[in-house]
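User: I'm curious whether this sequence folds into something compact or stays loose and floppy. Could you predict its structure so I can see for myself?
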Amino acid sequence: MRHASALLAQELLSWPDVGTRPMFGLRAFYRRGVIFAMLPEKRAFEVPNGIAYKEGGKWKVFEVENEAGIGKALAVLEKAYARAAVTK
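Assistant: Here's the prediction. I'll summarize afterward.
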């Protein structure tokens, strides 16, 4: 999961207006100050291969099953990123 998390973080940081901060052993991602995703860094979510994203004001966990799941995770994160622009 560390490898997948690093790949996802690298991609997220290439998106416009995205910043990151450490938070409770996780890595939080913001778009213009609005948090939209969290990736595991030093600890995991309820599931060891999960990432968190914000949807409808609530946190959801998406499981990255394998390297092929990274593309699906990016699609989910892209939607959360788009919603973060509307939130502010």
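Summary: The radius of gyration is 12 Å. Residues 18 and 27 are 12 Å apart (CA to CA).
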